[in-house]
Amino acid sequence: MDFSIIGIAKASKVYHNQDRIAELNQKHQSKSVQGQEDRVSISASARQSLLDSKGSQPPAPSTTAS
Predict the structure, then answer these.
(1) What pTM, to 2 d.p., does this model score?
(2) Which of 24, 41, 51, 55 would you call most buried, defined as having the most Cβ atoms within 10 angstroms of its Cβ?
């Protein structure tokens, strides 16, 4: 079994930082996007098939991230 040895001051600082983050998260509960995006690509033949089946103009690209 491996053990990591760090000083009490460093361990205490890390604990207090994590405690402060948890406190702030409880006070200000909000959903936030963390830079994650879903990207989807469609081949030219699939796009043409979709347009032929719907008989419409291509949809505008969406900029919504989830």
Answers:
(1) 0.37
(2) 51
